[in-house]
Amino acid sequence: MDKFRMMFQFLQSNQESFMNGICGIMALASAQMYSAFEFSCPCMPEYNYTYGIGLLVIPPIWFFLLGFVLNNNVSVLAEEWKRPTGSRTKDPTILRYMFCSITQRSLIAPALWVSVTLMDGKSFLCAFSINLDIEKFGNSSFVKGMSETEKIRLLARIPCKDLFEHQEIRVAATRYIKCISQACGWIFLLMMTFTAFLIRAIRPCFTQAAFLKTKYWSHYIDIERKMFDETCKEHAKSFAKVCIHQYFENISGEMQSLHRHRSGQDDSGDEGEDKRSDEDKLLGIRAQDDMNKVLWNWHTCKPALALRKDQMDGENSSKLNGKINEGFNGFANGHAHETKKREWAVYYSKV
Amino acid sequence: MERLKLVLQYFQSNSESISNGICIVLALVSVKLYTSFDFNCPCLPQYNKLYSLGVMTVPPIIFFFLGVLVNRHTGVMMDEWMRPVGNRSKNPAVVKYLFSAMLQRALLAPMVWILVTLLDGKIFICAFSVSVDPGLFSGVPNNTGLDVIRIMAKVPCKEDVIFQNSSFRKAVSRYVRCYSQAVGWSILLFLIILGAMGRLIKPCFEDHAAFLQTRYWSNYLDVEQKLFDETCVLHARDFARKCVVQFFEDMTEDSILHLPHPSFISNVSERWEEEEERLHGVTRQEQMDQLLNKWYYGKPELDVTRIAHRPRPCVTWQDPGGRTLYSDV
């Protein structure tokens, strides 16, 4: 059981923890980028709003798209979406589930950027300083007699410490806008947490059975793809080995067989076993055209999700008895498809 | 490094330990968030109270939701509550136990935030500086044109010009902070007394035997769900491998006779047998769908007699004379 647990942890850690790790790294990167970024408000009425709100909105979009790019499951999703139906039906719920899980993970870094920006307050200050009512903040006698445009230009300079002379009014206005910005930030965080709570804690009330199914099959698709790549790699290795072996044999056929006879039976046994296991790994695919067909059909006509029982039955009974005894148990083998499998034990005695 | 791994393993071994660990991590996160949060009192009479009470109540709500979200028991409890009865009767005591455990753990981080807030005092000062009677302190700055309320509202802001060279602001802050800390310590004391009383008095009111049963079955449900997920993952892997191999083998046009290897020579077929065992006979998409459906709609009864007492083949070696040479029995 321990082996299973370790393997399970390894499998899980490969898929989910890896994606969670990437997600966490991107979140940290977004917080770090914000603190390293030098925010410099233009302090001009035409550009303040664009700069402030742009800095609040555009980096999150960028992080969201980056999350999609870095997520391996995006290509799995695209492949599953675009493949021809072949002998395996397509299930739209699986596509939806995969898309939702990718989106959820990609939303964390943008949400963190937005909340850090709002808690800091600088972008709100830059965007909304011209909308302030400056009388509220103290002795504002200097604005009396100014035209509208001059007043707006003065207000636009509030975010810039060195451009605005009346420090107490600037400090009071900064504090006011920062307070509103932080309130917005907390409300944003509350909304995101509440939405996540609704999705994860309340969802089991509605679609639990279907959810188990989609979770299993989407994980299956991902792992099938990995298995296919692994099998192809192994196959290529064995293909290459056998190919090279055959090439050498062809070039110096007599020398090889002479050498083998002279060095005794053990070597041939081992070599033979290796070669046999390599031949096994070829799984019957021995030509370039066959391999091309395998790779082509894997996309255009994926196989049905149904493993053949007779393949396993045949191996089971032959494992117990070997080919020699198959004739003896022939009648059991012959009825293997209709009757239940019967276990035979044969005792070998040296007496 | 080894010690860290051991500690992690210990925490991961028990599902309750994991929940406790996560709960403590969330409490530490709440303290860190408080220290890194730049508290910015508006220092205006209309907004002070609103802002302060907002900062004191909204983050605890967020931490509460987070605590419920990251707790594994939430999923187990919802599953057990919402599932159809099937072959297994429902035990409401287990659901109640899981709910109270989850609630207790989720309430820790919010309480930590509130206590840290009160013990630090900034927020109380921001909220209640307007309610202080300035007559209690000397040195009220009366040369500015502002009325008393506005002056008191500016007390939380250190850098304001009207408080330069004046000890008035510091005196008022100290006074309000003292109140805030008193409230904080009282709440802490109250919670600790409540917890102690609960622990001491609980055995008088509850049936300990029933409690043991409830705790066992709630732990069982958690472990069962984890094992089901594990089995599904392993099954998917074996299913995928066989599907891929079958696909490769189907592509060849000539039917090649696969010579079976006797098991004592090649270890390939041993692995194959192990993998077949892990498939547990489920080899088609419809079978798997049915299995997952049934897991939800008709959970199996809690009775493993059949598999626990499965007959095991025992070998007995006898010589021609009937003497037992070796026996598994």
Protein traits:
heterodimer; A: 351 residues; mainly alpha; B: 329 residues; two-stranded antiparallel ribbon; 2 strands; 2% strand
Regarding quaternary structure, how should these chains be classified? Answer: heterodimer
Helix fraction bin of chain B:
55-70%
Number of domain modules of chain B: 2
The fraction of residues assigned to DSSP E strands of chain A is under 5%
Identify the biggest protein-protein contact and residues per side: A-B, 79 and 78 residues
Beta percentage of chain B is under 5%
Instruction: Tell me the helix content of chain A.
Output: over 70%
Low-confidence stretches of chain A: 264-269, 310-341
The helix-strand sequence of chain A is HHHHHHHHHHHHHH
- What integer value in Å does the Rg of chain B equal? 33 Å
The chain-level mean pLDDT of chain B equals: 82
Topology order of chain B in helix (H) and strand (E) letters:
HHHHHHHHHHHHHEE
Number of helices of chain A: 14
What structural class do you assign from the helix and strand content of chain B? mainly alpha
Terminal CA distance of chain A: 38 Å
Mean pLDDT of chain A: 77
Provide a count of the helices of chain B: 13
The rounded Rg of chain A comes to 35 Å
Structural class of chain A: mainly alpha
Family (chain A): Belongs to the CALHM family.
Keywords (chain A): Ion channel, Ion transport, Membrane, Transmembrane, Transmembrane helix, Transport
Subcellular location (chain A): Membrane
Region (Disordered) (chain A): 259-279
Could you explain the architecture of this structure?
The complex is a heterodimer of chains A (351) and B (329). Chain A has 351 residues and is mainly alpha-helical. Chain A has a domain at 21-207. Chain A is 72% helix and 0% strand. The longest helix of chain A has 48 residues, at 204-251. Chain B folds into two domains: 1-82 and 90-205, no CATH class; 212-249. Chain B has a two-stranded antiparallel ribbon. Chain B has helices at 2-13, 15-36, 48-70, 72-82, 92-106, 108-120, 122-128, 148-153, 168-205, 208-251, 268-279, 285-297, 305-308, and strands at 316-318, 324-327. By secondary structure, chain B is mainly alpha-helical. In chain B, helix 2 packs parallel to helix 6, helix 5 (92-106) packs across helix 10 and helix 6 (108-120) packs antiparallel against helix 9 (168-205). Mean pLDDT of chain B is 82; it is low at 253-266. The chains are: A mainly alpha (351), B mainly alpha (329). At the A-B interface, helix 1, helix 8, helix 9, helix 11 and helix 12 of A face helix 3, helix 4, helix 10, helix 11 and helix 12 of B. Chain B: Keywords: Ion channel, Ion transport, Membrane, Transmembrane, Transmembrane helix, Transport. Chain B: One of its GO terms (molecular function) is monoatomic cation channel activity. Chain B: Belongs to the CALHM family. Chain B: The chain crosses the membrane at residues 21-37, 49-70, 106-130, 182-201. Chain B: This is Calcium homeostasis modulator 3.
